[in-house]
Amino acid sequence: MPFETKGPATRRIAVIGGGISGMAAAHLLARDHQVVLIEAEPRLGGHARTVLAGKRGDQPVDTGFIVFNEVNYPHLTQLFRDLDVPTAPSSMSFGASIGGGRFEYGFRNWQGLFAQKSNLADPRYYAMLRDILRFNREAERLAGDGSMSIREFLDLLGTGDWFRDRYLLPLSGAIWSTPCQGILDFPARAMIDFFRNHALLGVTGQHQWRTVRGGSVEYVRRLQGALERAGVDLRLGTPVEAVLREAGMPRLRCRGGEWEMFDEVIFATHSDVTLRLLADADAAEARDLAAIRYQPNDVVLHSDPAMMPRRKGAWASWVYVEQAGGKPGPRADRIDLTYWMNSLQPIPMEDPLFVTLNANARIREDLIHDQVTFHHPVYTLEALAAQQRLRAGNGARATWFCGAWMRNGFHEDGFASAVDVVERLRADERAIAA
Predict the structure, then answer these.
(1) Could you tell me the keywords of this UniProt record (predicted)?
(2) Domain 12-49+217-292+379-433 classified CATH 3.50.50.60?
(3) Above 90 in pLDDT, residue 181?
(4) What angle do CA 338, 341, 343 make, to 5 degrees?
(5) Suppose 106 and one of 54, 87, 112, 169 were both cysteines; which one would form an S-S bond, judging by CB atoms 3.0 to 4.6 Å apart?
């Protein structure tokens, strides 16, 4: 039996959710405990989602998690090394196409800065570039604590409208997959911390970004194999219907099943899903889980270059797109963003592939390979305060919360939040043993 080698302090732990957080928690706990990993979908991976597309239909392309770097993704990097996951260099750059292509730039190289020749003679463009340098220089000093919004921060910094509307808000919206009008209410501290951690505030260049060769499905396959070898009870295509905590012992019921008892339950689901599953959530849990809202983003994998800037020189790995005349499109409440997958992953340039979020322009139907909707957390000051309270109370009633939403929303954050839970759980075990 797979659990016969466990120690005397073995606990039966349910992990709900098979994305990066749930997989990481199960992976870390399996050596000491009986772990049941329950996922509603028929596959593990969550936002690690690879699609076969391209001219021959055999090109792996990622549509969710795409890139990482060894400096800011230490847990993920170590996991990839442990599992011998093949990776390849990636190129990260940002560009924008505003007013239906009337204003464009790309930061892929120096030529991209002036892909639109009229920018050479536009003082507003030079003012924007100066404001970028000033922002990079002054942001850390002026941001203060976590109570200031980006709107308040920009007022304090005194940068111009072009910097705000044509650089910072589009770039921030691209990072968090959130519409520009919503970004102004984000905490300035969270934005600046991200910029610093990803080498966006310096003049020495970016960290070397990498991508999984063959798509993120390659790491998921290897991790799933490791979980199976460790004796984790994997239940795929098994939605949880409800969780109750009674007499210090969580119990849960899956669709069509009976109630099962566990020593601990770890929620590795989005906060809104967690709240729906918690049949006996107390007032504090309900308040804090409800405080983290989500932005739906419709994702289309396609081969239509019309979704990129008009000027090829302005093409970049991420491109923010705004409709002609600044008029909002049918999805103006969501950011219109395209990823150039040939720049991000080792895909031949003669097989153009793009991933577009919330397209306001029509994508040619015959060039569409795949469509999916992801939900990304929206970070407000209220949401950050709720995060802190949930982290402080983690483990109460043998209940644990983890997920990328517990941090900054990225793949490494999902893994790191699982590490937080596992370390706290082990600390509790040591305290009990003492």
Answers:
(1) Oxidoreductase
(2) yes
(3) no
(4) 110
(5) 112
Does residue 315 or residue 322 have the better pLDDT? Answer: 315
Q: Is 70 exposed, middle or buried (0-12, 13-18, 19+ CB in 10 A)?
A: middle
What are the binding residues? Answer: 21, 39-40
How far is 363 from 127, CA to CA, in rounded Å? Answer: 34
- Give the residues across from 40 on adjacent strands: none
Please, are residues 19 and 46 in contact by the beta-carbon 8 Å criterion? yes
Any idea what DSSP says for residue 213? Answer: T
The amino acid sitting at 430 is R
Tell me the pLDDT tens digit for each residue of 103-146. Answer: 999 998 888 999 999 999 999 999 999 999 999 888 888 877 67
- Exposure pattern of 169-198 as b/e (b: 16+ CB <10 Å)? bbbbbbbbbbbbebbbbbbbbbbbbbbbbb
Sequence letter at residue 125 = Y
> Which positions make up the binding site for FAD?
21, 39-40
**Sequence ranges of the domains in the chain:** 12-49+217-292+379-433, 93-205+305-362
The pTM assigned to this predicted structure is 0.90
CA angle 37–1–33, rounded 5-degree value: 45
**How is residue 294 written in tokens?**
């989500």
**pLDDT tens digits along 16-48:** 999 999 999 999 999 999 999 999 999 999 999
Predicted local distance difference test score (pLDDT) of residue 325: 54
Determine the number of helices (DSSP H) and then strands (DSSP E) in the chain: 15, 20
